[in-house]
Design brief:
single chain, alpha+beta, 3-stranded antiparallel β-sheet, 39% strand
Length: 79
């Protein structure tokens, strides 16, 4: 069985000089448009409507072998 391993981006814990120093990793969404997969921090409704396929970051998606083969290998994890 396989699942998506989302790319991440780093965001400050909070506002201000002190909390800006500390960053947490957050998952990005991935969107396939025009046959190309891309990582998106916050996809718009237009991105999702025009997409051939998408996965919203932070959720667990179990993949079939065909779905896993369609994704870039660095975004697929064996479980």
């Amino acid at each position: 069985m396989k699942r998506i391993l989302f790319p991440t981006y780093r965001r400050p814990v909070g506002p201000g000089a002190f909390l800006n120093r500390y960053k947490l990793s957050h998952p990005m969404s991935i969107v396939k448009a025009n046959g190309v997969w891309k990582a998106v921090v916050s996809p718009t409704q237009r991105d999702l409507v025009n997409a051939q396929k998408y996965y919203i970051g932070g959720y667990t998606y179990l993949l079939t072998d065909a779905e896993a083969a369609d994704l870039p290998p660095e975004w697929v994890e064996n479980i």
